[in-house]
Every structure is written in C-alpha cells, then in structure tokens.
Amino acid sequence: MLSDVIRERGPMTVAAFMDLALYDPSFGYYARSPRRSGAAGDFFTSVDVGAVFGELLESQIAEMAGLLSRDAKEPIDLVEAGAGSGRLSADILRAARIHDREVYDRYRLHLVEASPAARDEQRSTLGETAERLVSASMHLPERINGVVFANELLDAMPTHQVVMREDGLREVYVSPTLSLHERPPSTPALAEYLHRLGVRLEPGWRVEINLRAIEWIREVARRLDRGFVILIDYGHEARELYSVGHSNGTLTTFARHIASGPESAPGTPSWLSNPGEQDITAHVDFTSVRAAAEEAGLVTLGFLDQTYFLLALSQNLEDPENPANLESLKKRLALKTLIMPGGLGSTMKVLIFGKGVGRPALRGCSFAMRAT
Predict the structure, then answer these.
(1) In terms of domains, do 13 and 25 share one?
(2) Beta strand 144-151 pairing with 76-81
(3) Residue 74's beta-bridge partner residues?
(4) Rounded to two decimals, what is the model's pTM?
C-alpha cells in the first residue's frame, strides 16, 4: 500500500507526496495504468474528444517542419512528452500520412513517458505508424532537431505548496499519518521564485510553486538544437494565479469525472485522500514557464487560448467536396467541444516557443493572439 510507503518515508513536502501518489513505480496513479482519461477513466482531455485534435495539431507541426527544412532527406524529430500510450502521436502521424506524406516520411518519433504500463501500450496504439517510432523512454532525447509537444503535462508535475504567515513564508508538509503541518521552506528557491515574480502573498494565502516545470522547460531548451516547442495546458499568468482569487491554492483531484478542489474540502484536502487512487493537478504558472524558457534561449512565438489556436488551424477541416457528410459533421461536433468558451477552449492555453527559427508568423497564431 502506498500509505505504508508514506509512513516509512516520514514527513515530506507536498511535491514529494505528489511524486509518490502519481508516479511511484508500484503504487502511483499514473504508473499502474496505461490510460487514465476518457469515458472509462477519471477525466477528459482534448485527445479524448476524437482524432480531430491530433489532426489539427498535425497541420501546425507540418508547417513547423517546413520552416525547419524542405530537404526531403533531413529527418525531423517529433517528441511527445507525457505521451501516455501514444494516442495523440498516433492521431498526428495518421493525419500526416494522409495530408503531408513527405513530412511524415521524415518524422522520427520519440515518446517520453514515465509509466511503464503506458509505454508497453505504445506500439499497439501507434499501429501502422509505429514505423516512425525511434525511442520510447522516461527521458527526452539528448539532441533534438524538430518539434517537442506536450498536452497536459505541466499541471501533473509534483508541486510544492507554501502558505504565508505573519512571521513569514512556511511550506506545507505531509506527515506519515496523512495530515498536514507547516515547516520552514525546504529550499530557498521557493521564496526566490515569488520574489522574481514580484508576488506579495497576504497572511493566510496558500499557493503552489512548481519548480519541476521550470527545471523541465530548461532541460527542453538545452536539448533542443533547433526547432519548436508546443505546450498545451491549463493555468494562468502569475498575476492571476497568485492573487486573492486563488488564495486557497489550486490543487485539484479527479476521480470518476468528479473534480474536488480546495474550495470543496475545507477540512482535510481531497488530494490527501486515497493516495495513488486519484489524479492530482495544479494550475500552471505560465509567466514563470515563459521566463525560464526565454532565459534558457527559447523565443516565445505565441500564447493564446486553445479556442483561437484551433480555429486558426481548422479552416480546411471539412471535406471540400462534401461538407455535409457524416465524417465532416463528426469533426464539426468534436471541434465545437474543443473550442467551446468556458470548456476546453478557454480553459486550455497554448504556449509556443522556437529556437534557431526566427519569429515566424505561425498559422495557429493567425486567428487571435489572446489568452483569457
């Protein structure tokens, strides 16, 4: 039982607790199953809406591949981080075989996934497109020339939780008995993080600080020789995330499509219950991710709602010869779900970086550059 592991470890930060609850090889929520989303899972992602999400993303990636090189012999690394069983990559590659065959033949697919159970499913999920698979592991390729993309990865990274008291910043710890207590911060990086943002927390405010996300984007920048990064996730700019509106924190659990956030658990927080049996997420601080990326050599090319990103990419979605056929109707219904304001469309944000590619006007950013 994971609770036994926690008792043996002793007091730990919330980040360490999340790491065990989500990624422990034997008991972690993600480690034990190849798939957690969809109707039979605990939550929905854009991938669960249907193949149209991957088809639209493929059109943006194909444009990026063309900007990198038009040499039909030059390979393009396609790296999905947090790939799960590989469903999104499979949708992208199947669309590329149909619409951009020359680019498809250049792709070298790398799937980065922590869960052994999910990695075991990747080849069967990819099907005929598994011919493009070069590597599947827990780690990013050492050198990348191409496109790195991740859908809902950063929100699931283990995050620290801190609370401001009258005498200064304290960090929240999980005890062996699954209760919470406060201690001095485990690392000065937590206070430095808030200082860099110019954030002033009021006494009683409780917030999350995701140091892992910052480390990850720096690693991506180091390994990317030339190319693009597409991050799709939910969160806010720092000025909104670290404000009175989120002063109870944003740690949220998902189980059987029921979300439980800080407001729904005034006593023991929902994320502390049933470790290893439910998803735990926190909103992403896009300001800090972008700043760390730029400091590491990446150039920000776009930050916008998923609504506007997908609308820009959907201009040629329908069958031009028969726009009323069943397949086109299904795609339109799926697209409506992906772009609906108040749902995935405005909740999910798209953050795009480039390195060594200048500042191209990307198709996905042509509709509106707006993040609500």
Answers:
(1) yes
(2) parallel
(3) none
(4) 0.91
Do 129 and 259 belong together in one domain?
no
Q: Which domain holds residue 181?
A: 2-32+157-211+241-281
Q: How far apart are CA 294 and CA 276, in angstroms?
A: 35
- The verdict on 111 and 148 lying in the same domain is yes
Instruction: Indicate whether 40 belongs to any domain.
Output: no
CA distances 328 to 54, 286, 322, 332, Å, are 15, 34, 8, 6
Q: Per DSSP, what are the bridge partners of residue 253?
A: 260, 280
Tell me if 365 sits within 8 A of 236, measured CB to CB. no
Q: Are residues 63 and 178 in the same domain?
A: no
Tell me the CATH number at 357.
Answer: 3.40.50.12710
pLDDT tens per residue, range 242-272: 999 999 999 988 766 556 767 655 567 888 8
- The structure tokens listed for 220 are 């991506």
Taking only the tens place, the pLDDT of each residue in 55-99 is 999 999 999 999 999 887 899 999 999 999 999 999 999 999 999
What is the Cα–Cα distance from 230 to 88, expressed in whole angstroms? 13
Interstrand relation of 299-305 and 76-81 (parallel, antiparallel or unpaired): unpaired
pLDDT at 274: 83
Task: Give the torsion sign (CA, 187, 238, 351, 337).
Answer: positive
- 320 close to 328: Cβ distance less than 8 angstroms: no
Note whether 43 and 112 are within 8 A (CB). Answer: no
Token pair listed for 118: 């999910």
> What is the identity of the amino acid at 199?
V
83 with 163, same domain? no
Instruction: Decide if 177 is inside a domain.
Output: yes
Domain count, the chain: 2
Of 8-17, 77-86, 124-133, 210-219, which gets the smallest average pLDDT? 8-17
Looking at residue 371, its amino acid is: A
- Quick one: 221 and 325 in the same domain? yes
Q: 43-52: per-residue pLDDT in tens?
A: 567 777 788 8
* 41 domain residue, yes or no: no
One domain, residues 109 and 234: yes
Could you give the angle at the alpha carbon of 216 between the alpha carbons of 211 and 221, nearest 5°?
A: 130
Q: Does residue 167 share a domain with residue 24? A: yes
pLDDT in tens, 184-207: 999 999 999 999 999 999 999 999
